[in-house]
Amino acid sequence: MGRKRFGDMNCGIAQALEAFGDWWTLLIVRDAFFGARRFGDFETNLGIAKNILSDRLQRLVEHGIFSKQPVAESAQRFEYRLTEKGEALLPVLTTLRDWSDEWVFGKGHEPVIVKDRATNRRIPRMRVTDVDGRPLGRRDLRTEPGPGASQQTLRLLERRRQGPL
Amino acid sequence: MGRKRFGDMNCGIAQALEAFGDWWTLLIVRDAFFGARRFGDFETNLGIAKNILSDRLQRLVEHGIFSKQPVAESAQRFEYRLTEKGEALLPVLTTLRDWSDEWVFGKGHEPVIVKDRATNRRIPRMRVTDVDGRPLGRRDLRTEPGPGASQQTLRLLERRRQGPL
DNA sequence: CAGTATCCTCGCAGATACTG
DNA sequence: CAGTATCTGCGAGGATACTG
């Protein structure tokens, strides 16, 4: 019967999940903070299928997190920009980043165990390394806003010691 | 080909999603903060299928977010408790709650539009109301920690004006 | 380039039966 | 009660072809 919907739960967390609780959406939002605006930006950044991306962008627009505007006057091209509601998601992203910094990458890190699908056995998951196999420290994991990031986003990132994502 | 995994992305947000980015997990964590410990607690609270709950609890234990301990000495019953890593997720939950308070339930609220699957038409989603159909204010949406909530959790909730979820 | 439409596969989830 | 095992199905997600 497919997934259960959380939209009718009396809980802000359930509501938030209903808006952006799927696997891709939050990463799309993250890229938007880094300056992604056009369909192709998200596509190449994330390696997401076109139809899925199309669906997610529509959904984000419907939820008022993105706005869709023609890129130039009377052009057929559009761009997706974070609305105020969307910009308000920055604390969500930074909080997630902070938790991972400390508990996935950071000092509290223990190798994560996952199940191998084929053998159904528990195996330690690969650690995150650079291309040469050297483990990455938390400093290396920050992503800097791209050149397309808006002044507003840059201000937001700068404020309250929130730093890059 | 199934879902794409984010575990190898050099991004804390992707890592966090890989750990608890699915639909149910964060709600399970929320209930843990409210005092849920036993399998049946989560089951009845959430109305989740047994096998899914079992899988999610295992995954949470593997990720070090929950610990599984015998409830009494040498008993066959177990309870799932938030580890320190798990307790560290509280800011994530409160941030999500705050965003929903302001942008889904709060002043910035505009009725959310969703697609009707059958007709493929856009329809406004139900607003959140009480059983009598009266719209709920943000104050009504907070959930209080249950009697099983640990002193540690209560301290955490109290600190930094984080309030109930 | 920016999508839409279609097909297909598999993961997620519900239901249920079964076990200690 | 606390799970595990199995069956089933929807639908999310990937790949690709097609359109303006």
Element layout with pairings:
Two copies of one chain form a homodimer.
Chain A: H1 12-20, H2 25-33, H3 39-46, H4 50-62, E1 66-70, E2 78-82, H5 84-87, H6 90-105, E3 113-115, E4 122-124, H7 151-158
Antiparallel strand pairs in A: 1-2, 3-4
The structure holds a DNA duplex (20 and 20 nucleotides).
How would you portray this structure in words?
- The structure is a homodimer of 165-residue chains.
- Chain A has 165 residues and is mainly α.
- The first copy, chain A, is 41% helix and 10% strand.
- The first copy, chain A, is built from seven helices and four strands; from the N terminus they run H-H-H-H-E-E-H-H-E-E-H.
- The radius of gyration of chain A is 18 Å and the shape is globular.
- Chain A starts with 11 loop residues before the first helix and ends in a 7-residue tail after the last helix.
- Chains A and B meet through helix 1, helix 2, helix 6 and strand 3 of A and helix 1, helix 2, helix 6 and strand 3 of B.
- The structure holds a DNA duplex (20 and 20 nucleotides).
